């Protein structure tokens, strides 16, 4: 099939004679005489079967020299004007002179847009290894040569994918980024394809996912990606702008159309859990036009079925499912005489074609593709006198001589314009410094709105108070939001999220069911990484043939996400809001900011806020003063004051009792707190609900801090903070009340309203530095406020309270006005309710872990505190007969106490039958840590609990057992039966490490018992979450504060260090 010259040294003919051995027809390829580039073969050897021959690869050696570029430019212009029958015309001559002048002056030249489109189409036309070239003239070309950054590259890539996918009716497209230029690095897409699945090498040597992408997957992980470790995980994009480190961009799930692989008759395909992405988009080829080289030019078309069915699924070096499929088909794999490989391969290809057709996604079978190529060959022979063709690549990997291409002799040669292979960038790239920027977090949204109010006149609203329709009329919206649980919106943001997803989207054009699906899919699958989507530039929207300004075309916005990297879906909802606002046409004025409460929280928000100020205005002058307030405070002051500060109804409760639930010999302390709620309607609750407790700072700490206040008002005097606002020019400035705090005494503010235990922020340290009288202390404080790495090390080693900071820097006076205006607000703590209202009317019980630890590696001051996040739907099912599995070690048992009390109350008062409720509990010691042991036994005896399993992790009389082990060893079959066949519920309550372990165990159980793929089991759990049948109540940090925080912080700090070295 390769037209190599013979060993004889004779003058090669000017044309090649090729024969079709099926029909006997003869053709003469004269176009090959125009080939200028070398081919792999020489006089003594044929190298036609090499995958990446040297002659087809481009080395990153910079642009061509003037002497080499000029003749190539002339040839291209001759081809371009010749195609219009205008060769040697005045236009041709004038354009040639322009190009020659550009090359002489700059060493290169720029293609006109029409020339670029012509060149891109002809590069496809000349692609000898492509079978689908009959459509070459219908290629859509996106000109992205004005791109300047990786973020803009990502925007263009998203536009490309959206256009090409076209909801399954695929369209061929190419996006062309700036050309290679002397003295500057290249624009590069590190991925071989825009959409491709990850591959993970396991400890036992096996491969999970696509083996072809193992190296790229590891590179993505090095640059900050946190892999989900599934079989079909879409890789993020690594995009590189000139002379910059590559940046990581996860693809929005809505852009990636995937097709589940099913067979029309064989059910075993469903058990295999296979799927594939719809759009093949090659992104590592170099485009060469007229001597100019474009190293980033992603190109997409559509699949020939056997590319997926044979090469991707059946090749031994890829997913290699042939043996597994044959065994599921019950074929005889013991001997090749049975042709089991061929039978399985055919059915695999049938399944791929069937699945794409059912999903209404463009695909072509290899027989139709072969006939199409033969028609193209005939057209090209008639129009150009030949067609460069690589027989080895064009004959399909299945059916062999059944394809008409098999019988056709072909000539392979290289023409220009063309595509060429490139070396994988990571194999030759030397990083500038370190890599991908990781974002951080902060927790005080009240402080955020206060800070922003110094620059704007904002209206601050909760998401559930905001009408999304008003977005169309806003000019600027700043969104600060957290993420709940498994990447979902917080409870007060669910309506906002749903409404946002239902707004008309000009870019995706998804149907309503698809939007509803993507609403959950996005929040549960977005990767934790850097900025999710780059700025959607107005110029791009106006120039695109498929995009419009969108419903929010006049909106400018920016988003800041709050979260903790202790949770698996870090800031996922904030990413979703950021993406959605852009999709609807909004203009992002800043990339999304992320805040990690475990690392760099204040610095991240300060950077984001400073950038907002820079975009929208400068900070106004501010001054504060304290004025005497004549009002007298009454006993009801505290609830009303907290209501004023936190904008929510706060009611008082009486403490009935506090009881230690653990043995005095235990190293830990868990207490049962019983509160009397009275008749407050705000405190009506259901089993599984949570209660917010507003704490008070230690009186000793408050008194010590009062002694350090420089100018305190008289003790017991009620004061109000006033701020000097900058007025309109010519109008006298006025002192106006600061609404953050109610009128109160300084002692009350420090006791109940202000956080004096959290380490001061860099911004506060900067203020303290201006007050320091000792030059050395001033310098140290300034360094801490400006050096994020130094600040993080100081904060995490010392965990200092405000008082400890003042003791470390004794020359710093603390003005009362500064304390009242700059300290963060003291936030409530949330606890799971451990009682049932029917069993304990007028009361609420809390199970609280008492936390204390020493900072400075156990040698510093003793610190106290506990916080938890909370779930809004952690309640019993309405059907009391539905089986429930309760999993909660330690204080994770808290909400389950309310569950069994409620069931016991219903059994005793309403005559309900015994419930099917299984409790899986874990603790350290059977002697010291089995809290509620007697209550649990009573509940089981009376039918409120049907089964109780307890594991001990530190008991010398029992093997080390965690709740995950109990599920795996004792409840595997029951978990599958309850969740998959009986509409049961599973509840998991505890810290994030335990919850993640339980989730993985349940996924493994469902995969094993249900005989399904692990990825399919993961999808099933996501479905259970969406149906509120898999519930999680995940604590932030409790007993294991030091352990968990240190581990997560270590991971985050490494990324944080890289980001700081990189710069914003």
UniProtKB/TrEMBL annotation:
It is an enzyme of class 1 (oxidoreductase). Its cofactor is heme b; (6R)-L-erythro-5,6,7,8-tetrahydrobiopterin; FAD; FMN. It holds the Pfam family FAD_binding_1. Residues 427-613 form the Flavodoxin-like domain. Residues 648-902 form the FAD-binding FR-type domain. It catalyses: 2 L-arginine + 3 NADPH + 4 O2 + H(+) = 2 L-citrulline + 2 nitric oxide + 3 NADP(+) + 4 H2O. Heme b binds at residue 130. One of its GO terms (biological process) is nitric oxide biosynthetic process. Its EC number is 1.14.13.39. Binds 1 FAD. Binds 1 FMN. Keywords: Calmodulin-binding, FAD, Flavoprotein, FMN, Heme, Iron, Metal-binding, NADP, Oxidoreductase. Coiled coil: none annotated. SUPFAM superfamilies: Ferredoxin reductase-like, C-terminal NADP-linked domain, Flavoproteins, Nitric oxide (NO) synthase oxygenase domain, Riboflavin synthase domain-like. GO terms for molecular function: calmodulin binding; flavin adenine dinucleotide binding; FMN binding; heme binding; metal ion binding; NADP binding; nitric-oxide synthase activity. InterPro entries: CysJ-like_FAD-binding (IPR003097), FAD-bd_FR_type (IPR017927), Flavdoxin-like (IPR001094), Flavodoxin/NO_synth (IPR008254), Flavoprot_Pyr_Nucl_cyt_Rdtase (IPR001709), Flavoprotein-like_sf (IPR029039), FNR_nucleotide-bd (IPR039261), NADPH_Cyt_P450_Rdtase_alpha (IPR023173). Produces nitric oxide (NO) which is a messenger molecule with diverse functions. Belongs to the NOS family. Homodimer. Interacts with NOSIP and NOSTRIN. Interacts with HSP90AB1. Forms a complex with ASL, ASS1 and SLC7A1; the complex regulates cell-autonomous L-arginine synthesis and citrulline recycling while channeling extracellular L-arginine to nitric oxide synthesis pathway. This is Nitric oxide synthase. It comes from Anolis carolinensis. The gene is NOS3.
């Amino acid at each position: 099939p390769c037209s190599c010259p013979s060993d004889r040294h004779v003058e090669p003919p000017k044309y090649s004679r090729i024969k079709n051995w099926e029909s006997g027809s003869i053709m003469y390829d004269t176009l090959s005489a125009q080939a200028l580039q070398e081919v792999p073969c020489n006089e003594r050897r044929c190298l036609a079967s090499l995958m990446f021959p040297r002659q087809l690869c481009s080395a990153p050696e910079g642009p061509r020299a003037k002497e080499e570029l000029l003749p190539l430019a002339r040839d291209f212009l001759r081809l371009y004007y010749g195609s219009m029958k205008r060769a040697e015309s005045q236009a041709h001559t004038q354009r040639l002179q322009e190009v020659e002048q550009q090359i002489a002056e700059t060493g290169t030249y720029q293609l006109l847009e029409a020339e670029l489109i012509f060149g891109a189409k002809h590069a496809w036309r000349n692609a000898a290894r492509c079978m689908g070239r009959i459509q070459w003239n219908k290629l859509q070309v996106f000109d992205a040569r004005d791109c300047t950054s990786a973020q803009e590259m990502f925007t263009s890539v998203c536009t490309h994918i959206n256009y090409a996918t076209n909801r399954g009716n695929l369209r061929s497209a190419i996006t062309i980024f700036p050309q290679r230029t002397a003295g500057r690095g290249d624009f590069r897409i590190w991925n071989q394809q825009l959409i491709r699945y990850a591959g993970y090498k396991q400890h036992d040597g096996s491969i999970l996912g696509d083996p072809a992408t193992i190296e790229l997957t590891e590179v993505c992980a090095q640059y900050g990606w946190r892999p989900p470790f599934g079989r079909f995980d879409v890789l993020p994009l690594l995009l590189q702008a000139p002379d910059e480190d590559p940046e990581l961009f996860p693809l929005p799930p809505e852009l990636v159309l995937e097709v589940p692989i099913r067979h029309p008759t064989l059910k075993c395909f469903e058990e295999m859990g296979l799927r594939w992405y719809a759009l093949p988009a090659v992104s590592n080829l170099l485009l060469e036009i007229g001597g100019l080289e474009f190293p980033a030019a992603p190109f997409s078309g559509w699949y020939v079925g056997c590319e997926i069915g044979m090469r991707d699924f059946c090749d031994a070096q890829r997913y290699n499912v042939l043996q597994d499929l044959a065994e599921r088909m019950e074929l005889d794999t013991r001997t090749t005489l049975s042709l089991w490989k061929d039978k399985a391969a055919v059915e695999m290809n049938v399944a791929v074609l069937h699945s794409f057709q059912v999903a209404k996604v463009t695909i072509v079978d290899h027989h139709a593709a072969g006939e199409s190529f033969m028609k193209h060959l005939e057209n090209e022979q008639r129009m150009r006198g030949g067609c460069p063709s690589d027989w080895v690549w064009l004959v399909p990997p299945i059916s062999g001589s059944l394809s008409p291409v098999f019988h056709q002799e072909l000539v392979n040669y290289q023409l220009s314009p063309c595509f060429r292979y490139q070396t994988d960038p990571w194999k030759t790239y030397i990083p500038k410094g370190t890599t991908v920027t990781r974002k951080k977090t902060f927790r005080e949204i009240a402080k955020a709105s206060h800070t922003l109010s110094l620059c704007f006149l904002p209206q601050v609203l909760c998401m559930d108070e905001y009408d999304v329709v008003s977005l169309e009329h806003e000019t600027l919206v700043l969104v600060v939001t957290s993420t709940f649980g498994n990447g979902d919106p917080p409870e007060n943001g669910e309506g906002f999220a749903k409404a946002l997803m239902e707004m008309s989207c000009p870019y995706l054009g998804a149907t309503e069911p698809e939007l509803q699906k993507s609403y959950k899919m996005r929040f549960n699958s977005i990767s934790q990484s850097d900025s999710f989507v780059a700025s959607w530039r107005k110029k791009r929207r106006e120039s695109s043939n498929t995009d419009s300004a969108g419903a929010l075309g006049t909106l400018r916005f920016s988003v800041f996400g709050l979260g903790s990297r202790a949770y698996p879906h870090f800031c996922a909802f904030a990413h979703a809001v950021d993406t959605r606002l852009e999709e609807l046409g909004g203009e992002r004025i800043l990339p999304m900011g992320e805040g990690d409460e475990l690392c760099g929280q204040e610095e991240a928000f300060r950077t984001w806020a400073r950038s907002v100020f820079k975009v929208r205005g400068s900070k106004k002058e501010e001054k504060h003063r304290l004025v005497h307030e004549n009002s007298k405070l009454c006993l009801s002051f505290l609830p009303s004051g907290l209501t004023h500060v936190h904008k929510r109804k706060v009611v008082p409760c009486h403490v009935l009792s506090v009881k230690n639930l653990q043995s005095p010999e235990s190293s830990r302390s868990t207490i049962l707190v019983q509160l009397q709620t009275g008749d407050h309607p705000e405190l009506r609750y259901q089993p599984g609900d949570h209660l917010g407790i507003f704490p008070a700072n230690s009186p000793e700490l408050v008194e010590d801090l009062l002694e350090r206040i420089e100018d305190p008002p008289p003790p017991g005097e009620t004061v109000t903070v006033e701020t000097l606002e900058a007025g309109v020019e010519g109008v006298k400035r006025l002192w106006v009340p600061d609404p953050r705090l109610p009128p109160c005494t300084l002692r009350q503010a420090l006791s109940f309203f202000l956080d004096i235990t959290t380490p001061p922020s860099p911004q506060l340290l900067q203020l303290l530095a201006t007050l320091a009288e000792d030059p050395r202390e001033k310098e140290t404080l300034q360094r801490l406020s400006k050096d994020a790495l130094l600040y993080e090390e100081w904060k995490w080693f010392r965990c200092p309270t405000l008082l400890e900071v003042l003791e470390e820097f004794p020359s710093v006076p603390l003005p009362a006005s500064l304390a009242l205006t700059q300290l963060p607000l003291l936030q409530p703590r949330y606890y799971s309710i451990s009682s049932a209202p029917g069993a304990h009317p007028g009361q609420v019980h809390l199970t609280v872990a008492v936390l204390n630890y020493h900072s400075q590696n156990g040698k510093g001051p003793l610190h106290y505190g506990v916080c938890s996040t909370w779930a809004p739907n952690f309640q019993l099912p309405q059907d009391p007969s539905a089986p429930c599995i309760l999993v909660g070690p330690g204080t994770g048992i808290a909400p389950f106490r309310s569950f069994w009390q409620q069931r016991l109350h219903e059994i005793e008062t309403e005559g309900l039958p015994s419930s099917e409720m299984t409790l899986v509990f874990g603790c350290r010691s059977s002697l010291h840590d089995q809290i509620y042991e007697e209550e649990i036994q009573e509940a089981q005896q009376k039918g409120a609990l049907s089964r109780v399993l307890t594991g001990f992790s530190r008991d010398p009389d029992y093997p080390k057992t965690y709740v995950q082990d109990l599920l795996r060893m004792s409840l595997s079959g029951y978990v599958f039966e309850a969740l998959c066949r009986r509409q049961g519920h599973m509840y998991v309550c505890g810290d994030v490490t335990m919850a993640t372990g339980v989730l993985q165990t349940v996924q493994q159980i469902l995969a094993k018992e249900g005989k399904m793929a692990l990825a399919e089991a993961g999808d099933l759990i996501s479905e259970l979450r969406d149906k509120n049948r898999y519930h999680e109540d995940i604590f932030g940090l409790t007993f294991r504060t030091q352990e968990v925080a240190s581990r997560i912080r270590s991971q985050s700090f490494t990324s944080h260090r890289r980001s700081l070295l990189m710069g914003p």
